[in-house]
Amino acid sequence: MRHSLTLILLLMLTACNIFSPKDEKSASAAADSAEGMYAQAMEQINNANYPGAIKLFETLQSRYPYGRYAQQAQMEIAYSYYKQSEPESALSAVERFIKQYPNSSHVDYAYYLKGLVNFDEDLGLFGAGFHPDVSERNSKAPREAFDAFKDLVTRFPNSKYAADSKLRMQYLINALARHETQVASYYLRRGAYVAAVNRANGVLIDFPQAPATREALQVIVQAYDAMGLKDLRDDSQRVLDKNFAKDGVKPVVNPRQWWKFWQS
């Protein structure tokens, strides 16, 4: 009986020695596969460990440069940079994806993410904290956000991101128009009347449907009046009276209210 127990224990230990290393080896191989590395990286994203996710995705790309996992890894790298507030790196990663995979079924999301990165980068430009002494602040990011959303809507009208992109485009149109009008008003207060007229005219040309066009026309009227150009003043006043009722026109989309809705 004692010999039988000894033999059974010996066989069990031998089995452990035979099968455990093999099982560990299989698990290690699975983890080192493209699919396994992608799963690990996605777990890091789910845990908000974006630097760790980026590192794993980059390792995946270097080991497995071809195939769907490498392609998806490039997009996830862009998303991870976006989430950790590194817009330049995010945009660079998005551009690489668009250039490398122009026929990807996910390229619409690439344009959407490009718009989001720029959309979020400089929203403070349009906030309540606008000050005249920063009237020349760069509106490059919002304009590039608009262009990215426009590319998405134009190229992929049936994309699931198209509807949201259209809303953001409307917000950007109104916000950019309001910003340009604020700049024009700033020039008017400083006595730079020609600059005020030019900036306000830009609003009428670039954003003809925006609510801020009314204020832009008012700036033009006041600037021409200050310069003693009565004929131009009167012409501008007639345009203002013809297009806007005396009690004002309510905007179709109020940017401030829309933004509060978007954040809710």
Name a few traits of the molecule.
264 residues, mainly alpha, elongated
Derived from helix and strand composition plus strand pairing, the structural class reads mainly alpha
Principal-axis shape equals elongated
Helix content: over 70%
- Separation, N- and C-terminal Cα atoms: 75 Å
Give the averaged pLDDT, no decimals.
81
Strand content: under 5%
Query: Rounded to an integer, what's the Rg over CA atoms?
Result: 29 Å
Spans of at least 5 consecutive residues whose pLDDT stays below 50 are 5-29, 125-136, 248-264
Number of DSSP strands?
0
How many helices?
Answer: 12
Topology as a string of helices (H) and strands (E): HHHHHHHHHHHH
Biggest sheet descriptor: none
Function: Part of the outer membrane protein assembly complex, which is involved in assembly and insertion of beta-barrel proteins into the outer membrane.
Main location: membrane
Pfam family, one: YfiO
Organism: Candidatus Nitrotoga arctica
Summary?
With 264 residues, this protein is mainly alpha-helical. The chain has a domain at 31-85.
